[in-house]
Amino acid sequence: MMTRRQCSLCDVAAAVIEAAAEQGLCSWEAVNVDRDKGLLVRYGMDVPVLVCEGKMLFKHRVTAEQLQAALADIGSAECGA
Asked: What's the predicted TM-score (pTM) here?
């Protein structure tokens, strides 16, 4: 998940993704766009963004139900950047 420090939407999205990971639906990693100039230019304030297997699953807000549906569409996968 593309994220930034002090991003409340990122915190909420991380909790949703972590809950899915705890259920064995996916694994994930957080990528701070502030640490990579290319990612910062690409995403800037437009976070959180969850990318899985090269496909953007969501941007900004996601519910547990939306995430589970997206994961079901692609099958169980490792999610993150």
From this structure: 0.84
